[in-house]
Specification:
Tetracycline Repressor, domain 2, 9 helices, globular
């Protein structure tokens, strides 16, 4: 993970990875076919870790507003405490934007959005529109990752959390309105 976050996915090489891990290329190839395989495994691990934190922080949510507040806070907290995972997930998504054939990287993101949707669905007034729930999950992920992509460059963690609070409140209010049928 350190090689990918230090040098970027494209610039990272198997040689860099094996040197940093202090193992031979043969050992690497016993476990992975190439850099895409290890990248996919690291992305899956980062998303699993993020989802664990999300599930912990959303347990006990009483309503849609609570679960959304907890989702945003869980994402923000996780990424501030796991900067390498944030960078890796952001780079991994950028790989897909470049239209590469890497379905093994795309699948963890789909599962992540589906898991967020399942956490929100019990609090959505019927009838539940699966597409609206999916949009909501994308919006939560987009708010946090979009804000952090710039804030991490210019602010420390305390300033990020302070500046995120008013945006979180406005976001949650608008998403509750979005999910309630008119």
């Amino acid at each position: 993970m350190a090689v990918f976050t230090d040098y970027g996915v494209d610039a990272s090489t198997i040689e860099m990875i094996t040197e940093r891990a202090d193992l031979g290329k043969g050992t690497f190839y016993c476990h992975f076919r190439g850099k895409e395989d290890i990248l996919a495994a690291l992305i899956q691990q980062a998303i699993d870790n993020l989802l664990t934190v999300i599930r912990q922080q959303t347990t006990g949510s009483a309503n849609l507003q609570d679960v959304l507040n907890n989702l945003v806070r869980a994402h923000t907290s996780f990424f501030l405490n796991h900067r390498e995972e944030y960078v890796l997930l952001f780079q991994g998504r950028m790989l897909l934007k470049l239209d590469r054939e890497m379905a093994e990287i795309e699948e963890p993101y789909r599962c992540y959005l589906a898991d967020m949707g399942r956490l929100v669905e019990p609090f959505v007034p019927p009838p539940v529109d699966p597409m609206k729930v999916r949009r909501l999950a994308c919006a939560v992920a987009g708010l946090v990752t979009g804000f952090l992509s710039f804030a991490m460059i210019t602010m420390d963690a305390a300033a990020i959390e302070k500046n995120m609070e008013p945006m979180r409140k406005a976001f949650v209010e608008s998403m509750v309105a979005f999910m309630n049928p008119s």
